[in-house]
Design brief:
The chain is of the alpha+beta class. 62% of the residues lie in helices and 15% in strands. The strands form two sheets. It has a three-stranded antiparallel β-sheet with strand order 1-4-5. Helix 1 runs antiparallel to helix 2.
Amino acid sequence: MALMNARGLIRLGHLVTETITLNARSITLGTLRTTATEQTNPSTDAPPPPDMDSKIKEELAKLNKEVATLNEKSNELMDKYKRSLADGENLRNRLTKQISDAKIYGIQDVLSKATESVPKEEISDKNPHLKNLYEGLMMTEQQLQNVFKRHGLEPVDPINEKFDPNFHEALFQQEVEGKTPGSVVVVSKIGYKLHDRVIRPALVGVSK
């Protein structure tokens, strides 16, 4: 959307520029014609009537005013165009970061959801295929965690911890018996921090 607005502003800026150029050419042609007429007529010719001279001045003043107005509009459109470009660049940077975050954390989130959704009572020797799948997912998740930790990236899973707005983002509040108000009682999505700097806050529910 921002790119479409930018293109529209570019086209409008071009139209304004062309209009200013045409007006400037008209003024120049008018001046040249006046000069040619003065050179063709002998110096003994009678001077133009005062009312004609006044009309010419009024016309020139009007054209100059129109040129100034068009220049002002052109500058305004150029400013809007630059702002649209900046907004588009900011949007592109945000989308790029979101895509990058999804690539980094998406696998971890999928693995966590997959292992959590497996019924623990079904993991037994009676169901070897499910057991092998579950153990494989757990091993993959652990290896991924080791890679993250080796590079200073650590998960933030604050269940039963005190809510910290620096590391957590509260999605809702609910009353939970036996829990101190302000404690994290639900973790909807774990967060991540890189060398104690929050990369993604944990999405949590807080007791009240």
